[in-house]
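Sanity check record (used in CI):
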Amino acid sequence: MRKNWKIIGSALFLSVLTMAPALASVVMTNTRVIYPANAREKSIQLTNQDSLPSVMQVWIDSGDDKSTPETAEAPFLVTPPLFRIEPNEGQTIRLVFIGEGLPQDRESVFYLNTVQIPSLDANSADQNQMIVMLRNRIKLFYRPTTIKGGIERATDQFSFSVQQEGADWRVTAENKSGYHISLVNAKVVSNAQEFPFEPSMVAPYSKADWVIKNPGHPMQLPMTVNYSFINDYGGTGQGEYKFNPDTPVTDK
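Expected output for P pilus assembly protein chaperone PapD:
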């Protein structure tokens, strides 16, 4: 039995490279996972909303989006790593931290991967059928007990600066908290005019920047950066950073 499961897994990952857009029938209750450092384990619930069974494979990587269970490196154990989920039923997977030596003043980010291989339709067994492998990848945050306040309070330690670079603006965010802050729907508002940009996640105690190409407008006060950030539950919170005469809004 163990050998058969290994063969299935290998075939599954060869096919994952040819994934196509599709609607997954196996859904996860989480859009991100928070693993407290003092937790013995973390449980994740999967539900098969289809009328056919599916085979699922699960693994965790440290940032390589091309990883497989054979190549992924992460200090977590996932059980079960490979399983069949029946129609309209659920399956709980358990994550257990088995590592050591991670920073205790900040979160560490990993990625939880799930791959779904749906069953073939028995009524169409004599016809050619295309099997589409569905891969989902969400963030997993290992959170030490030493960082306090929560993600909402972390934005109090979040600041922005804007520099003029020729015809462009460079927007820089500085995160002075121990949390990863994932930004969405950000925009600079200068003198009542809006200039959106596409932000990303800003790691703890680090900076990230983005360029607004040729806004065609001089930087003028009053000026703010309005943004949304993803909270622990996958929802969004709202943030606003107000510039004042002492805030870096400069020509470069």
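Residues 2-16 form the longest helix (15 residues). If this sentence no longer matches the regenerated tokens, the check is flagged for review.
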